[in-house]
Design brief:
The protein is an alpha/beta fold. The protein has a single domain, classed as 3-Layer(aba) Sandwich (Rossmann fold), CATH 3.40.50. The protein has 8 helices and 7 strands. Strands 3-2-1-4-5-6-7 form a 7-stranded parallel sheet, with helices on both faces. α3 packs parallel to α4. The two termini are about 30 Å apart.
Protein backbone atom coordinates (compact mmCIF):
# COMPACT_ATOMS: atom_id res chain seq x y z
CA UNK A 1 0.00 0.00 0.00
CA UNK A 2 1.20 3.51 -0.80
CA UNK A 3 2.35 5.26 2.37
CA UNK A 4 0.61 8.44 3.49
CA UNK A 5 3.60 9.53 5.55
CA UNK A 6 3.93 13.32 5.65
CA UNK A 7 0.34 13.67 4.42
CA UNK A 8 -2.19 15.57 6.51
CA UNK A 9 -5.79 14.40 6.59
CA UNK A 10 -8.98 15.81 8.06
CA UNK A 11 -12.03 13.62 8.69
CA UNK A 12 -15.12 15.76 9.17
CA UNK A 13 -17.49 13.71 11.28
CA UNK A 14 -14.57 11.63 12.47
CA UNK A 15 -16.36 10.43 15.59
CA UNK A 16 -19.08 8.52 13.68
CA UNK A 17 -18.80 4.92 12.58
CA UNK A 18 -17.45 5.43 9.06
CA UNK A 19 -15.53 8.56 10.05
CA UNK A 20 -13.77 6.89 12.97
CA UNK A 21 -12.86 3.82 10.89
CA UNK A 22 -11.50 6.09 8.15
CA UNK A 23 -9.42 8.14 10.58
CA UNK A 24 -7.90 4.94 11.95
CA UNK A 25 -6.95 3.60 8.51
CA UNK A 26 -5.49 6.92 7.39
CA UNK A 27 -3.37 7.05 10.53
CA UNK A 28 -2.23 3.46 10.07
CA UNK A 29 -1.15 4.39 6.54
CA UNK A 30 1.09 7.10 7.99
CA UNK A 31 -1.00 10.28 7.75
CA UNK A 32 -1.33 12.91 10.45
CA UNK A 33 -5.05 12.97 11.16
CA UNK A 34 -7.44 15.56 12.57
CA UNK A 35 -11.07 14.71 13.27
CA UNK A 36 -14.00 17.01 13.95
CA UNK A 37 -16.60 16.57 16.63
CA UNK A 38 -19.85 18.45 17.15
CA UNK A 39 -21.17 19.82 20.42
CA UNK A 40 -24.40 18.00 21.12
CA UNK A 41 -22.89 14.88 19.58
CA UNK A 42 -19.79 13.57 21.31
CA UNK A 43 -18.43 15.71 24.12
CA UNK A 44 -14.83 16.80 24.20
CA UNK A 45 -13.78 13.95 26.50
CA UNK A 46 -15.21 11.35 24.13
CA UNK A 47 -13.75 13.12 21.09
CA UNK A 48 -10.32 13.15 22.70
CA UNK A 49 -10.68 9.44 23.46
CA UNK A 50 -11.35 8.82 19.78
CA UNK A 51 -8.30 10.90 18.90
CA UNK A 52 -6.18 9.05 21.42
CA UNK A 53 -7.27 5.77 19.85
CA UNK A 54 -5.33 6.80 16.73
CA UNK A 55 -2.16 6.03 18.73
CA UNK A 56 0.03 9.01 17.92
CA UNK A 57 0.53 12.41 19.46
CA UNK A 58 0.35 14.24 16.13
CA UNK A 59 -3.37 13.54 15.75
CA UNK A 60 -5.97 15.87 17.21
CA UNK A 61 -9.68 16.67 17.42
CA UNK A 62 -11.36 19.99 16.60
CA UNK A 63 -14.91 21.09 17.34
CA UNK A 64 -16.86 22.00 14.18
CA UNK A 65 -20.42 21.78 12.90
CA UNK A 66 -21.06 21.55 9.15
CA UNK A 67 -24.38 23.34 9.63
CA UNK A 68 -22.54 26.36 11.05
CA UNK A 69 -20.33 28.01 8.42
CA UNK A 70 -18.48 30.27 10.89
CA UNK A 71 -17.33 27.15 12.76
CA UNK A 72 -15.97 25.79 9.47
CA UNK A 73 -14.03 29.00 8.93
CA UNK A 74 -12.55 28.63 12.43
CA UNK A 75 -11.67 25.04 11.55
CA UNK A 76 -9.85 26.27 8.45
CA UNK A 77 -7.94 28.84 10.49
CA UNK A 78 -6.84 26.25 13.07
CA UNK A 79 -5.60 23.92 10.33
CA UNK A 80 -3.85 26.77 8.50
CA UNK A 81 -1.99 27.77 11.65
CA UNK A 82 -1.08 24.21 12.64
CA UNK A 83 -0.40 22.63 9.25
CA UNK A 84 -0.34 25.37 6.64
CA UNK A 85 -1.95 23.11 4.05
CA UNK A 86 -4.21 20.07 3.87
CA UNK A 87 -3.72 16.99 1.70
CA UNK A 88 -6.90 14.96 2.31
CA UNK A 89 -10.37 15.83 3.56
CA UNK A 90 -13.08 13.22 4.10
CA UNK A 91 -16.62 14.58 4.37
CA UNK A 92 -18.19 12.00 6.68
CA UNK A 93 -20.64 14.14 8.68
CA UNK A 94 -24.35 13.58 8.22
CA UNK A 95 -27.60 12.39 9.74
CA UNK A 96 -30.89 10.85 8.73
CA UNK A 97 -34.25 9.79 10.16
CA UNK A 98 -36.06 6.68 8.90
CA UNK A 99 -39.41 7.60 7.33
CA UNK A 100 -41.29 5.27 4.96
CA UNK A 101 -41.48 6.73 1.46
CA UNK A 102 -45.27 6.56 1.40
CA UNK A 103 -45.58 8.65 4.60
CA UNK A 104 -45.34 12.04 2.93
CA UNK A 105 -46.77 13.94 5.90
CA UNK A 106 -44.01 12.75 8.24
CA UNK A 107 -41.37 14.34 6.01
CA UNK A 108 -42.00 17.88 7.23
CA UNK A 109 -40.56 21.07 5.79
CA UNK A 110 -38.40 21.48 8.89
CA UNK A 111 -36.94 17.98 8.61
CA UNK A 112 -36.31 18.36 4.85
CA UNK A 113 -34.50 21.64 5.45
CA UNK A 114 -32.39 20.10 8.21
CA UNK A 115 -31.47 17.07 6.10
CA UNK A 116 -30.32 19.26 3.22
CA UNK A 117 -28.58 21.70 5.56
CA UNK A 118 -26.38 18.97 7.04
CA UNK A 119 -26.11 16.45 4.22
CA UNK A 120 -25.67 18.81 1.27
CA UNK A 121 -25.17 22.46 2.19
CA UNK A 122 -22.82 21.55 5.02
CA UNK A 123 -20.71 19.40 2.73
CA UNK A 124 -20.41 22.22 0.21
CA UNK A 125 -19.69 24.78 2.93
CA UNK A 126 -16.93 22.55 4.32
CA UNK A 127 -15.32 22.33 0.92
CA UNK A 128 -15.71 26.05 0.32
CA UNK A 129 -13.86 26.76 3.55
CA UNK A 130 -11.10 24.19 3.07
CA UNK A 131 -10.42 24.44 -0.66
CA UNK A 132 -7.58 26.99 -0.23
CA UNK A 133 -5.73 24.62 2.11
CA UNK A 134 -6.19 21.70 -0.29
CA UNK A 135 -4.97 23.82 -3.20
CA UNK A 136 -1.91 24.77 -1.15
CA UNK A 137 -1.05 21.07 -0.98
CA UNK A 138 -0.78 20.93 -4.77
CA UNK A 139 -2.05 17.36 -4.64
CA UNK A 140 -5.24 17.59 -2.61
CA UNK A 141 -7.99 15.00 -2.32
CA UNK A 142 -11.58 15.42 -1.14
CA UNK A 143 -13.78 12.37 -0.58
CA UNK A 144 -17.53 12.70 -0.06
CA UNK A 145 -19.77 9.98 1.40
CA UNK A 146 -22.80 9.33 -0.78
CA UNK A 147 -25.29 6.46 -0.59
CA UNK A 148 -26.89 4.06 -3.03
CA UNK A 149 -30.11 5.84 -2.03
CA UNK A 150 -28.93 8.49 -4.49
CA UNK A 151 -29.54 5.95 -7.26
CA UNK A 152 -32.33 3.65 -6.12
CA UNK A 153 -34.38 6.11 -4.01
CA UNK A 154 -34.84 3.43 -1.35
CA UNK A 155 -32.89 4.89 1.54
CA UNK A 156 -33.97 5.96 5.01
CA UNK A 157 -36.19 8.70 3.58
CA UNK A 158 -36.86 10.52 0.31
CA UNK A 159 -35.09 13.74 1.29
CA UNK A 160 -31.94 11.88 2.34
CA UNK A 161 -31.78 10.10 -1.02
CA UNK A 162 -32.26 13.42 -2.82
CA UNK A 163 -29.49 15.04 -0.77
CA UNK A 164 -27.13 12.19 -1.61
CA UNK A 165 -28.00 12.50 -5.30
CA UNK A 166 -26.94 16.11 -4.89
CA UNK A 167 -23.65 14.95 -3.38
CA UNK A 168 -22.88 12.88 -6.46
CA UNK A 169 -23.53 15.93 -8.63
CA UNK A 170 -21.32 17.95 -6.28
CA UNK A 171 -18.49 15.44 -6.73
CA UNK A 172 -18.62 15.89 -10.51
CA UNK A 173 -18.95 19.67 -10.38
CA UNK A 174 -16.12 20.17 -7.90
CA UNK A 175 -13.87 17.73 -9.76
CA UNK A 176 -14.12 19.98 -12.82
CA UNK A 177 -13.87 23.23 -10.88
CA UNK A 178 -10.91 22.36 -8.66
CA UNK A 179 -8.67 20.32 -10.96
CA UNK A 180 -5.78 19.83 -11.26
CA UNK A 181 -4.75 20.84 -7.73
CA UNK A 182 -7.58 18.89 -6.06
CA UNK A 183 -9.08 15.53 -6.94
CA UNK A 184 -12.67 14.92 -5.82
CA UNK A 185 -14.11 11.45 -5.25
CA UNK A 186 -17.25 9.90 -3.82
CA UNK A 187 -17.82 6.64 -1.98
CA UNK A 188 -21.35 5.26 -1.99
CA UNK A 189 -22.23 2.62 0.63
CA UNK A 190 -25.31 0.48 0.85
CA UNK A 191 -26.43 -0.72 4.28
CA UNK A 192 -23.62 -0.37 6.83
CA UNK A 193 -23.55 -2.01 10.27
CA UNK A 194 -23.31 1.22 12.29
CA UNK A 195 -25.83 3.15 14.37
CA UNK A 196 -26.16 5.87 11.71
CA UNK A 197 -29.79 5.04 10.89
CA UNK A 198 -31.83 4.93 14.11
CA UNK A 199 -33.73 1.68 14.61
CA UNK A 200 -31.63 -0.52 12.35
CA UNK A 201 -30.46 -3.39 14.51
CA UNK A 202 -28.63 -6.68 14.05
CA UNK A 203 -31.83 -8.42 12.91
CA UNK A 204 -32.37 -5.80 10.20
CA UNK A 205 -28.75 -6.12 9.04
CA UNK A 206 -28.99 -9.91 8.95
CA UNK A 207 -32.18 -9.77 6.87
CA UNK A 208 -30.72 -7.33 4.36
CA UNK A 209 -27.38 -9.15 4.30
CA UNK A 210 -29.03 -12.43 3.38
CA UNK A 211 -30.53 -10.77 0.28
CA UNK A 212 -27.22 -9.44 -1.04
CA UNK A 213 -24.90 -11.22 -3.48
CA UNK A 214 -22.06 -10.98 -0.92
CA UNK A 215 -24.41 -12.20 1.85
CA UNK A 216 -23.62 -9.52 4.42
CA UNK A 217 -24.00 -5.80 4.95
CA UNK A 218 -20.93 -3.58 4.96
CA UNK A 219 -18.81 -2.81 7.97
CA UNK A 220 -17.54 0.69 8.59
CA UNK A 221 -14.09 -0.64 7.68
CA UNK A 222 -15.35 -1.78 4.26
CA UNK A 223 -16.32 1.80 3.47
CA UNK A 224 -13.16 3.20 5.04
CA UNK A 225 -11.03 0.93 2.85
CA UNK A 226 -12.65 2.41 -0.25
CA UNK A 227 -11.91 5.91 1.03
CA UNK A 228 -8.32 4.91 1.74
CA UNK A 229 -8.00 3.52 -1.79
CA UNK A 230 -8.90 6.95 -3.17
CA UNK A 231 -5.82 8.29 -1.40
CA UNK A 232 -3.42 5.42 -1.99
CA UNK A 233 -4.27 3.75 -5.30
CA UNK A 234 -6.61 5.87 -7.41
CA UNK A 235 -4.38 8.84 -8.13
CA UNK A 236 -5.63 9.24 -11.70
CA UNK A 237 -9.33 9.18 -10.76
CA UNK A 238 -11.48 12.24 -10.13
CA UNK A 239 -15.17 13.08 -10.37
CA UNK A 240 -16.35 9.52 -9.90
CA UNK A 241 -18.18 7.69 -7.11
CA UNK A 242 -17.20 4.19 -5.98
CA UNK A 243 -20.10 1.94 -4.95
CA UNK A 244 -19.49 -0.24 -1.87
CA UNK A 245 -22.81 -2.06 -1.42
CA UNK A 246 -22.17 -5.82 -1.54
CA UNK A 247 -24.06 -5.94 -4.83
CA UNK A 248 -27.33 -4.45 -3.61
CA UNK A 249 -27.80 -2.37 -6.75
CA UNK A 250 -27.55 -5.45 -8.99
Amino acid sequence: MKSLKNRRALVIGGTGGIGAATATLLAEAGAEVAITWRRGGLNDVEAEARRAALDAGSHFAIEADVADSPSLERLRDVLAERWGSLDIVVHAAGFTTPIPAQNLDALTDELIDSIFQVNWRGQFASMRALAPLLKASGDGLAVFISSIAAVNGAGSNIAYGAAKAGIETLVKSLARALAPEIRVMGVSPGVVATDFVPGRDAAFNAKIGASLPLRRVATAEDVANAILACATHLGYATGTTIVVDGGRLL
